[in-house]
Amino acid sequence: MDIIKAFEETNTREPKKRDYFYVTNLGSCPRQVIYNMEGREAEPYTVGELSRFQSGTFTQRNWEYAWNRKGILLAKEFYIPALWGKPFFHGRVDDLLYNLSFNEEFLLNCNVKGDAKFLKSIKPTDIILLEFKTARSNAFSYPNKIAKLSHKLQTWAYQIHLEEFFPSLTIKEHAFLFYVDRDGTNKPILHILERPDKDLLRIEATKLIQAYRNFKEKDILPPALSRNLKKVKIGGLSKVKLVSNWKCNYCKYRRICELPEYKSKDNVIGTVKGKSFVPNKNYDEFKMKDFINDDEIKSLIQKEEK
Ligand code: SF4
Q1: What are the pLDDT digits (tens) for 104-125?
Q2: Where are the alpha helices (H) located in the chain, listed in sequence order?
Q3: So where are the chain's domains?
Q4: For residue 35, which atom of ligand 1 is closest to its CA?
Q5: Which of 88, 158, 186, 228 qualifies as a FRET site for 21, CA 20 to 30 Å off?
Q6: pTM of the model
Q7: Best of 33, 226, 246, 253 to mutate for ligand 1, by most ligand atoms within 8 A of CB?
């Protein structure tokens, strides 16, 4: 797909309402999920974002092509219409691998994280679920942090589903999260996932279902993600800055949420002078929007005194 087509398909289609979740919604901001389900208008994707999506898809297809030629790709894009036996969650497993052995070339060329001993136990008849992710090269500088909770939840949800509803498949107890550098400068990271945490999965799924019910039945939106108050030194003075959650920085609904701009100078809300706080003009505005309250400021100043 060329970039113009990607733009047309992504940015010019009418937002649609839906009444089910995607498995990839697990671990996301519940408010963001509801905005999306309700078809609220999101910020358009930029050309840079669209080309990153495209290169991510291309990278994945490239790897799948190589796995297929080697005879280790059993299935890809495996559609799952219902999770936990209910049509609330829809999803698509990226890849199912088989015929693998410890000496498989692509495994040997990865930076392996997690329980590497597991690789030695793999037999060719075992089926391994793999979720494919691409990331910017700087993410590879922190290999132990690359596997986000949302990636784990998504993969576990698929894994459990395949075990429960396709008992004829022998899915190994550990799935792979496979991270490929979009810029091609680092070798891939193969994160061997822990066994599924079924309790955590249910908690996260229930959180989303409950948030959606509250919205539909009582018109209550989930709260905005928590943001922090940060002390910064500017011109030798101790200032207080409002910093929104990092996830909000990448969210296409941040305008609807009216959150403070990430890294903006306008987020400095006042100056600490000894035991007192001198608010800036924007302090009341942020307070009215419920982004800050006086008690938080008090406790911040007390911390400063200690
Ligand atoms: S801007 Fe933040 S709080 Fe608002 S929907 Fe997006 S992620 Fe959630």
Answers
A1: 888 899 999 999 999 999 998 8
A2: 3-11, 30-37, 47-70, 105-108, 117-120, 149-165, 198-218, 246-249, 254-257, 282-288, 294-305
A3: 3-217, 228-305
A4: 5
A5: 228
A6: 0.84
A7: 253
